[in-house]
Amino acid sequence: MEVETAPTTKGRPREFCVDKALVDALHIFWAKGYDGASMTDLTEAMGITKPSLYAAFGNKEALFHKALDLYEAEKLEYTRAALDQPTARKVAEYYLRGALDTHCGATDPKGCMGLLGTLACSPEADSIKADVVRRRASSHRALVERFERAKAEGDLPAQIDPEGLTSHMLAILQGITVQASAGASRAELERLVDTSLALWPGK
């Protein structure tokens, strides 16, 4: 656990846990998006001053990138584990049910931090949107490659386009995250996943 010594105006420097502060920042960005999260929101949640934030993390943009790294490492592990499932249908099921667990939980904010955090980004936040798009493209490529392998193995019908199938599945995923943030119940979203899997073209 990393501990940062933060400067104060008087007396001894105040120490704070950098890891905990980053978790607190993650939840603010997740709940409010990049533009919606003010520096006051962030410093109050993290329990530090603006100078301490700058000293430990750089600026707000750098803090968001670090929070997004943590979000992907801890909250999106299911997206990587899904690729190891034995069939394309199992990949889709693991992916979509993992999204339900992550984006419809009882303690974390609803929806996807990356998607919802950039839906209404201002022009000043173009680098934030570009980073999220880059990360999303990497996930897209990994799924396309997995579905191409499934097609080569006969696990998917010959007429199925792996690129189109990936786009379809990610559209369902994005629908889950947006509807979750808009207040859809877990039961409603489970029906969406069940229906999508019932229409899956593979075994």
From TrEMBL:
DNA-binding region: 38-57
Keyword Coiled coil attributed: no
Pfam families, per the entry: TetR_N (PF00440)
UniProt KW keywords: DNA-binding, Transcription, Transcription regulation
Keyword hit for RNA-binding: no
Gene Ontology MF: a single term: DNA binding
Domain (HTH tetR-type): residue spans on this chain: 15-75
PANTHER family assigned: HTH-TYPE TRANSCRIPTIONAL REGULATOR YJDC, TRANSCRIPTIONAL REGULATORY PROTEIN
Name the UniProt record assigns to this protein: AcrR family transcriptional regulator
Species assigned in the record: Sphingopyxis panaciterrulae
